[in-house]
Amino acid sequence: MSDGSSFYITTPIFYVNDVPHIGHAYTEVAADVLARWHRQAGEDAWLLTGTDEHGQKILRTAIANGVTPKEWADRLVETAWKPLLQTVDIKNDDFIRTTDERHEVNAQKFLQHLYDAGHIYTGEYEGFYCVGCEEYKQPSDLIDGTGEFAGVQVCAIHSIPVELLHEKNYFFRMSTFADQLLALYEDNPDFVQPAAARNEVISFVKQGLSDLSISRSSFDWGIKVPWDDTHVVYVWFDALLNYITAAGYGHDDEKFSRLWPATHIVGKDILRFHAVIWPAMLLAAGIEVPRRVFGHGWLLVGGEKMSKSKLTGIAPSQITDTFGSDAFRYYFMRAISFGQDGSFSWEDLSARYQSELANGFGNLASRVIAMVVRYCDGEIPTPTVFSEDDDLIRATEKRATDAAGEAISRLAIHEAIAAIWELVDELNGYITSQEPWALAKDPANRARLEAVLFTAVRGLGTLAVLLSPIVPQATGKLWQALGGSGELTDVRIDQAWQWTGGTHVSPLEALFPRIEATVG
């Protein structure tokens, strides 16, 4: 297993029954920011994402569209889900599909191992099933329907009626792992985060676990149960295995040993699958449990969870076509406390773009570069005498670097950005108070002017390094304008204030151009 120097992080694999919305992109960006940060801190970071393509919901969607399930999945993956990664600038290391042979074959190996070890038995089950969740529901998971579904019980998440199913299936003896799971949560408080999610999971397990139905015989779109091809593997049992099949389980022991265990970033609505079922499966197989399961909140539009069925789904391109991928990434990581629900509004996005990105960071960069060009012919000064004000900026660079890194270690992306933004604000205040444009008018102040401009350039370079995982396009342009040495992504982010560069700056275009058009 991993010696700790690797950082393997995953998103959920997303269901291909429809096209992605900004809720999916939010998860992708969060995982990508964390992967980029750890990669730039010198760790062996590896980001996995992908698609979940089996199950009854996919089968029904494909039939409704007059194609086979595989044709439907292929179409959605190529036209919607892979393009999403480009839209919001995701730098993933792998993309797994549950229809990949590497997944299907090795998922069967895992299942056979559990069967041979006596963790699986035959039984019958009757219960209310939500096709939207691909999950049997307890009475407490149901609510009274409204509108066209008035008078019937509906899923609390999807607001659609549940179906009463009675099947003879194979069952995983999950109930036998309740005590081990509770011990896991007790011994490793960081295993499930944030704290509210951990408390929810503990409460759920303490109520008692039932054994899990892990096969279906009423339809055939899925991975065949290896010892009984009249059954297919339950879609969630199948899907969870992607995290290890992509990492080498069953076919690349060296890779699996290097990468596993992983940090899982998931939406809170699928927390129980990842924090209860998944570790129980791994305990049964004798495989180390994940390093951490982090359940982030929902994106809310008009007070409701992002949903295609409720017409609250917003395509990421609706934002990026106007504001760009950097603004998308910054806004959702900055405006929402990672781990809590957050409301999206076009007005807030537009306001933050203008005040924080365009005026705060972008204008700072443009002003400093322009002044070095104007007052020093583009040559970065090399002063030897600094004032207390200069030293304070240098101290803030170090403090912001350390604070941001500590926040990232807790997956508190919003806190990391807030720490970095202290340097943005202090640099803006520093430029205002030092008035380099006034210093430039008197040759007697030349030494002071050069110290101010040098300090500002140093601060900008530190910002370029620290913000690289969050706004990679803008920081890449800034890095070039500053004459930074080597590739920006190769500069150690945990030593951001120690960056090195050349002797000259070059003109810089606006990093975040003014947007006049009305959006929303």
Automatic annotation (TrEMBL):
<comment type="function">
    <text>Is required not only for elongation of protein synthesis but also for the initiation of all mRNA translation through initiator tRNA(fMet) aminoacylation.</text>
</comment>
<dbReference type="GO" id="GO:0005524">
    <property type="term" value="F:ATP binding"/>
</dbReference>
<dbReference type="Pfam" id="PF09334">
    <property type="entry name" value="tRNA-synt_1g"/>
</dbReference>
<dbReference type="InterPro" id="IPR041872">
    <property type="entry name" value="Anticodon_Met"/>
</dbReference>
<dbReference type="Pfam" id="PF08264">
    <property type="entry name" value="Anticodon_1"/>
</dbReference>
<dbReference type="InterPro" id="IPR023457">
    <property type="entry name" value="Met-tRNA_synth_2"/>
</dbReference>
<dbReference type="InterPro" id="IPR033911">
    <property type="entry name" value="MetRS_core"/>
</dbReference>
<dbReference type="InterPro" id="IPR009080">
    <property type="entry name" value="tRNAsynth_Ia_anticodon-bd"/>
</dbReference>
<feature type="binding site">
    <location>
        <position position="158"/>
    </location>
    <ligand>
        <name>Zn(2+)</name>
    </ligand>
</feature>
<dbReference type="InterPro" id="IPR015413">
    <property type="entry name" value="Methionyl/Leucyl_tRNA_Synth"/>
</dbReference>
<dbReference type="InterPro" id="IPR013155">
    <property type="entry name" value="M/V/L/I-tRNA-synth_anticd-bd"/>
</dbReference>
<protein>
    <recommendedName>
        <fullName>Methionine--tRNA ligase</fullName>
        <ecNumber>6.1.1.10</ecNumber>
    </recommendedName>
</protein>
<dbReference type="GO" id="GO:0005737">
    <property type="term" value="C:cytoplasm"/>
</dbReference>
<dbReference type="GO" id="GO:0004825">
    <property type="term" value="F:methionine-tRNA ligase activity"/>
</dbReference>
<feature type="binding site">
    <location>
        <position position="130"/>
    </location>
    <ligand>
        <name>Zn(2+)</name>
    </ligand>
</feature>
<dbReference type="GO" id="GO:0006431">
    <property type="term" value="P:methionyl-tRNA aminoacylation"/>
</dbReference>
<keyword id="KW-0436">Ligase</keyword>
<keyword id="KW-0030">Aminoacyl-tRNA synthetase</keyword>
<dbReference type="InterPro" id="IPR014758">
    <property type="entry name" value="Met-tRNA_synth"/>
</dbReference>
<feature type="domain" description="Methionyl/Valyl/Leucyl/Isoleucyl-tRNA synthetase anticodon-binding">
    <location>
        <begin position="402"/>
        <end position="487"/>
    </location>
</feature>
<keyword id="KW-0963">Cytoplasm</keyword>
<comment type="subunit">
    <text>Monomer.</text>
</comment>
<keyword id="KW-0862">Zinc</keyword>
<dbReference type="InterPro" id="IPR014729">
    <property type="entry name" value="Rossmann-like_a/b/a_fold"/>
</dbReference>
<comment type="similarity">
    <text>Belongs to the class-I aminoacyl-tRNA synthetase family. MetG type 2A subfamily.</text>
</comment>
<keyword id="KW-0547">Nucleotide-binding</keyword>
<dbReference type="GO" id="GO:0046872">
    <property type="term" value="F:metal ion binding"/>
</dbReference>
<keyword id="KW-0067">ATP-binding</keyword>
<feature type="short sequence motif" description="'KMSKS' region">
    <location>
        <begin position="305"/>
        <end position="309"/>
    </location>
</feature>
<feature type="domain" description="Methionyl/Leucyl tRNA synthetase">
    <location>
        <begin position="8"/>
        <end position="368"/>
    </location>
</feature>
<keyword id="KW-0648">Protein biosynthesis</keyword>
<feature type="binding site">
    <location>
        <position position="155"/>
    </location>
    <ligand>
        <name>Zn(2+)</name>
    </ligand>
</feature>
<keyword id="KW-0479">Metal-binding</keyword>
<feature type="short sequence motif" description="'HIGH' region">
    <location>
        <begin position="14"/>
        <end position="24"/>
    </location>
</feature>
<feature type="binding site">
    <location>
        <position position="133"/>
    </location>
    <ligand>
        <name>Zn(2+)</name>
    </ligand>
</feature>
